[in-house]
Amino acid sequence: MEAAAEIKMEDKKAVHVLEQCVTLWKNTSSDNEKLAALMVITRLFNAQDSDIASRKILFQTIGFEFVNRLLKSPAPTECPEHIYLSLALSVLSAYATDADLVAHPQMVQNIPLLVESVDHADSSIASDSMQCLSALSSNSSTMKQVVSHGGATALCRCAIAPNPNSDIALNAVKGLLVSESLTLKDLTSCAPVLSSLVRSLATQFHQKQDADKFKLCDDMVFLVMYISNHGDVPDGAGCFRDLVMDRTWKDHVRDGLFDVLRSRLSEDLRARAFSLVVAMLGLCGAQWMVAKSGRVEKSSLLVISMKLAAVEVNIHLGESDEVSHIDIDQLSSITKTVLGDSFRITEAVITTMAELADMDNCSDVLSGEVILLLHHSITETLRAILYYFSQLSEGDALSLEDDIALAAARLVAVWCEEEVDMLKSELSACSVVLKRIAASQSHNSVFASLQDL
């Protein structure tokens, strides 16, 4: 009852504040009175804590006309230089909390000014401009205007610079990149500053030693996957070529990941780190994990990633006294993500080792000791996968549609292309299941080697 009474009191207070603001504005007749009223209203009314109806009423009361005139008017010499700009942007940022108001033509016409103001020296001006530009960037009907006026570039710039608005800017950039309303051609102009953003985040990821490291990890996964998916398409041909060829930022990611993976991690944190390993493998290949310079021992990330992948696969799919039947459907989504990434890491290592075996300078890249360590981890991974398949009945195989199971079978197929002498008895024990999976994937040539088991 006390809580309900408190809520009602808060509602009454909000209504009273809104009525005060409306009355104050309606009682003005001159610009000076409007200016004074606006100063009071911006202090009384909190758009973030108000509901849609209240924001609509305030907008219908004040409108855009006077606010837009403030934006274009120089402040009197006796006032702070940017007082009018600050006041007007404070009102616009309140309007920007409403999806309908943010798409209003008179809001859209202010995009160039907002782009100029997001990195303003005055923190309140920069913050209000960022709120407006972020809202415009997330609205499908206005984001093209934001990009065409340099808004994406400005947001990337703000995301790079250490400031209170950098997280808002980065989220706005990510929203633009995944939008179906924009093409890569629309965003090509911001490719250089987007590349700078990736380099900046990679440096921070390397240097941070706190919980922020994992947020940076997630951000890097997003951006690296975007570049992998768009760097070679016709509209964006070559726009990220310099970034992909630049080894420095990739070294920072590699060294940062080594710091993370050699620590004791929860399953969730390891999943996030594995996701970045896999994203980087997709962009750079497994040889990126072998250092040519820097503080990390030459093959450390390659070895530890493969070792941890083997551990994860053995824990969840390998033979165990505690679990008599492995049911993939019962695994958590995080576990499935870790397993899927473990398979991708293993496949990349197998493929890279096969490529290196054909090179004259293989020993210059990987030592004999490292090759033995990798081979051991790969074998243990495949042994666990084959044990899992050996537990399936023919009926299970016929209905097998689980992504994890198919990914595991794909890994076995890749391994069979390179290795024919190991684990023969284990392969024989599950050959019927693997052949049935291969038959169901006849359209995919990767699985062809399973037909010959």
Number of helices: 26
Distance between the termini: 71 Å
How many beta-strand elements? 0
Portion in helices: 55-70%
Order of helices and strands: HHHHHHHHHHHHHHHHHHHHHHHHHH
| Rg measurement, Å | 29 Å
Q: If you average the pLDDT, what whole number results? A: 85
Beta strand %: under 5%
Q: Structural class of the secondary structure composition?
A: mainly alpha
Q: Summarize the main sheet.
A: none
**Low-pLDDT segments:** 1-9, 233-237
3D shape: elongated
Explain the overall architecture.
The protein has 453 residues and is mainly alpha-helical. Helix content is 70%, strand content 0%. The protein contains 26 helices and no strands. α4 runs antiparallel to α5 (83-95), α5 packs parallel to α9 (123-137) and α20 (333-357) runs parallel beside α24.
